[in-house]
Write a structure and sequence with these properties.
2 copies of one chain form a homodimer.
Chain A lengths: L2 E8 L3 H9 L14 E7 L6 E7 L5 E12 L3 E5 L2 E3 L2 E2 L5 E10 L2 E10 L2 H9 L2 H18 L1
Antiparallel strand pairs in A: 1-9, 2-3, 3-4, 4-5, 5-8, 6-7, 8-9
Chain lengths: ~150, ~150
């Protein structure tokens, strides 16, 4: 399955975490580990809907990330992939599919991100690019954000 | 887009063509150019639903084809890919995405199959494997079948 996983119990309701992942006004507030930022976020949150998140590095260079939502269960589950840039236009490189789940657990939320790849090389590259640290820091920022929304 | 296309005006209502593509009892009757056949067909026709079509060669060798439906508009549109074998398990090799549309045209149906690939190599391979002939013969068989259903 070539899967990388991040799971965390977060002291916030599911609805807020889901909103932070889907509201284009909130994504820039947590999505990139600082000093990286997000200069543009667009989300069409429905199966087949496209998303665009432009990441900006500290030197101003921009990296557009395009994807398509595959499955949407509001406040429970969100699946998207970079295998398509729109419904149904293949991307330059199908790299990953992310499966996010938000579950109630003792008044908090069990937040789980499963990120699957098509090849052993891709999962190794993602790990080497710093998946654990990058998603870890982004999730710290997400946890901070949901205190305030 | 690395696309291969087959378009044909077929003298049958959209509903019958859609049924021939989705009913597991009908798929074996037209899907493979003879003397190839289909020994098993399973379809879970909804976004994220899996499909399995086992093709059988004249010598009895079997070739399972697994995929997932991405978009389903009954009697109008059907999109599926072999990039997943189930929702959302990446397949061994994301090779193609097929977009089928069924449109009314002067009492007949304009049937269009657009088959998209992720790489130039894959589209060239699919063409070399005989896309035009293979899909052409299968569509002849489809056209015959819908006269009788």
């Amino acid at each position: 399955m070539y899967e990388l996983t991040l799971a965390r119990l977060i002291d916030a309701p599911r609805e807020k975490l889901y909103r932070a992942w889907t509201d284009p006004a909130l994504i820039p507030l947590w999505f990139c580990p600082k000093p990286w930022g997000v200069s543009k976020a667009e989300t069409d949150v429905r199966p087949g809907g496209a998303s665009l998140i432009v990441m900006r590095g500290p030197d101003g260079q921009e990296f557009p990330n395009r994807g398509v939502y595959l499955e949407v269960v509001p406040n429970e589950k969100l699946v998207f992939t970079d295998a398509y840039v729109a419904a149904w236009e293949p991307s330059e490189k199908p790299f990953m599919t992310a499966i996010l789940t938000f579950e109630d657990e003792g008044g908090k939320t069990r937040y789980t991100a499963r990120v699957r790849h098509w090849t052993a090389e891709d999962v190794a590259q993602h790990e080497a690019m710093g998946f654990e640290t990058g998603w870890g820091i982004a999730t710290d920022q997400l946890e901070e954000l949901v205190k305030d929304i």
